[in-house]
Amino acid sequence: MQRTIIHFDLDTFFVSCERRLDSRLIGKPVIVGGTGDRGVVSASSYEARTFGVHSAMPMKMARQLCPDAVYIRGNAGTYSKMSREVTEILQESLPVVEKASVDEFYGDLTGMDKFFGCYRFSKELRQRIMNETGLPISFGMSPNKTVSKVATGEAKPNNEIKVDAGYEKIFLAPLSIKKIPSVGQKTFVQFCNLGVRTVDLVQQMPLEMMEAVFGKSGRIIWERCNGIDNSPIVPYHERKSISSERTYGQDTTDITKLRTTISAMAENLAFQLRRGNKLTSIVTVKVRYSDFQTYSKQMRVPYTSADHTLIPKVMELFHKLHNRRMLIRLVGVRYSGLTEGHYQIDLFENTNKTVNLYKAMDIIRDRYGDHSIRRANTIGEGSRTIGNQGNPFNGEPPILLAHRHQ
């Protein structure tokens, strides 16, 4: 049976969320990301892109290119909530949905042509999403994930494209090789050195040559350029770790600020574990010095999601790492080795009061935000950019916002 795969992508998602909250931003150049000199652009509106602004660009450069834009720090919790609204509509409507990122989805409509016209059904679904959420969205439809994703890119902004079976190569042929998934900047430079810039030239190259030049990835790129992709729709991705990092606006040796940052990240990540019904068994701390030398240490711990257990372990690792008399550029915390489970009482250390305290604190955080209640030692200048991350355990990748890099 011929497959029918649809790829949905929310247009300039972070910007669209901000415009939904404030309609005065519609039609204006809007840039979401870090507001400090070391911040980077997380998203930019199409109006800002006409000035050359794009995601991952240093915010300092964006300000030079588009000084009159509206600059917004962004809120990951808000974006996660709006993303879930779209996810729920898709899960309700499609037999199989894969959430590739906070603003990107795949669906498998194979066999639905017997009962519905897949393209007509998808157009109606797209219209429903826009009507119910107020967020613009585009889609591409084809027999596989690669062609559908590329088609969505060509459809943007706020449109749709269908590529019929048998026309995949024809559709891809005139496009830039950069539009093929898995072709990054480094690979694109290699293609340019070969005199190859468009997909049609790759389609004409022997598979053996592609493998000789690019190794194992050569076959993957060649197949994708020829419209071949048998990868399945994966409805759920199990998270293996959860992490947070902070890049300081100015490198620092302020030990109070460093401890505050580390403690705040450890506490917030512990809350994320409990909210996702997860326990961690491995704690890792990372430190990057001003010379960009990066060091990390980790230790195993009994499965837990308790602040009072994890914070001391995190601080112990940090003090082992902090052994150079140099300015520090970045610190990070990661919990890994995750498993399903609720925080349990330790018969030798805790009481029922401890568990009830965590439950009460988490209820307040869920209702009023991650930082509505905190430990005293996590309050201070060092914790000011540890943002609301939403729930990273709802079957979707976490949202990474540039506002951490202040």
Automatic annotation (TrEMBL):
Compartment(s) of residence: Cytoplasm
Cofactor binding, per record: Binds 2 magnesium ions per subunit.
Enzyme class: transferase
BP terms from Gene Ontology: DNA repair; DNA-templated DNA replication; error-prone translesion synthesis; SOS response
Keyword DNA damage among UniProt keywords: yes
UmuC domain ranges (all copies): 5-184
Keywords: Cytoplasm, DNA damage, DNA repair, DNA replication, DNA-binding, DNA-directed DNA polymerase, Magnesium, Metal-binding, Mutator protein, Nucleotidyltransferase, Transferase
InterPro entries the UniProt entry points to: DNA/RNA_pol_sf (IPR043502), DNA_pol_Y-fam_lit_finger_sf (IPR036775), DNA_pol_Y-fam_little_finger (IPR017961), DNA_polymerase-Y (IPR050116), DNApol_IV (IPR022880), IMS_HHH_1 (IPR053848), Rev_trsase/Diguanyl_cyclase (IPR043128), UmuC (IPR001126)
Binding residue positions for Mg(2+): D9, D103
Signal peptide extent: none
Catalytic activity, as annotated: DNA(n) + a 2'-deoxyribonucleoside 5'-triphosphate = DNA(n+1) + diphosphate
Enzyme Commission number(s) from the entry: 2.7.7.7
Coiled-coil boundaries: none
Stored NCBIfam families: PRK02406.1 (NF002677)
Task of the protein: Poorly processive, error-prone DNA polymerase involved in untargeted mutagenesis. Copies undamaged DNA at stalled replication forks, which arise in vivo from mismatched or misaligned primer ends. These misaligned primers can be extended by PolIV. Exhibits no 3'-5' exonuclease (proofreading) activity. May be involved in translesional synthesis, in conjunction with the beta clamp from PolIII.
Complex and partners: Monomer.
Protein name: DNA polymerase IV
Protein encoded by which gene: dinB
